[in-house]
């Protein structure tokens, strides 16, 4: 009985992680308020990139994980999801 319950819990956790990816880890990310405010000033909503004068910069997934201090992001999964959306 106990083993069956634990197997079901593990299956549910695997399914949740497969469907939601790294979302649970992002909920625990501590964001540096000052860096966020500084970056928000340069974020261009229309183009989804940072604009510094005449230069547009689009962060990579690796750069986002560094900015967010989130090391548990599955980079290969993020790229494959973006490709699947298109």
UniProtKB/TrEMBL annotation:
* InterPro entries cross-referenced by the UniProt entry: DUF7745
**UniProt-recorded name of the protein:** DUF7745 domain-containing protein
Q: Enumerate the spans annotated as DUF7745 domain.
A: 9-80
Matches recorded under Pfam families: DUF7745
Q: Which organism is it from?
A: Gossypium schwendimanii
